[in-house]
Amino acid sequence: MQALPAASPMPIQISKVGVTAGYDLAVFFLIGLFGGAHCIGMCGPLVATYAERMETNDRWSGALTLYEMRQHALFNLGRTVSYACIGAVFGTAGALLYGTIGLAGILGPFQGAVGVLAGAAILVMGLTRLAGYRQGAVEGIIAGTGVGSLFARSYTAISTRIDRWVNGVGILGLGALHGLLPCMLLYPAFLYVFAQGSPVYGLFALGTLGLGTVPSVFLYGTVIGSVSARQRQTVHYGLGVLFIGLGYVLLAMGFMRFGIMLPLPDIPYYQPLAGPEAMT
């Protein structure tokens, strides 16, 4: 890590996005790209409803109109912006937490603990996918908790606004509301950006993930009718590998705070908050 100037009035440096974040962002894009099948499984019925209720003068010919393409593009833009904003919220929460703990002089160990716990959680999520993840299982558990009421209200808000918003720019809002729905694809990403403690990084990381999901969801809403359960299960195996990779990197970075060095691939990876060694 780059040492802070001795005369700097700030004892702790908040992490920022740089060229070393490129590897992480590429992984997030791949998660979104592979996770498109998951998105179709969870949100496909709603996307199909949007497609059916869009007004078009060429519905009976079966041809895809520019208007329909625009509406689906706006919907996916709304989803991506929503993911990015929520990622920034989680990154901000991490930064605020680290800043508060830093005042107590225990930033390094605390951040290490967060990295280990979050990394372990992401690893478990990845392993569940390799072990035969059943789509909607975790989402159903989350929706059944107190937090689930937020998701239930979001789903209701989407359902009741389809007819009013689907045929105008309001479809952006329909896409944005999807960020509040329970999604196993997003939970590991939220944990990761929280552990990094950077709102800018959270914005870019989740925005990149959202962009990765666009091709599958866009094609599903326009020309593809369905994705088989077997195809989605195959994709879950790929997601499991990616989540295990992210979780391991975060776990190793957390253990570094305690002086425990785990092997890491020789690649540029995103560095979180500067620890006590940066104060020398």
TrEMBL record:
The chain crosses the membrane at residues 25-51, 80-101, 107-127, 169-194, 200-223, 235-260. Residues 28-248 form the Urease accessory protein UreH-like transmembrane domain. Keywords: Membrane, Plasmid, Transmembrane, Transmembrane helix. InterPro entries: UreH-like_TM_dom. PANTHER family: HEAVY METAL TRANSPORTER, HEAVY METAL TRANSPORTER-RELATED. This is Urease accessory protein UreH-like transmembrane domain-containing protein.
